[in-house]
Amino acid sequence: MKQSPSSAKLLSTLRIAPVAPGDLPVVLGLVRKLAEYEHLAHMMVATEEDFRQALFGPHASVEAVLAWWEDIPVGFALFFPSFSTFLGRSGLYLEDLFVEPEYRGRGIGKAILQHLARIARERKYGRMEWSVLDWNQPAIGFYQKLGAQLMDEWTTCRLTGAALEALAE
Question: What's the pTM?
Answer without folding.
Answer: 0.89
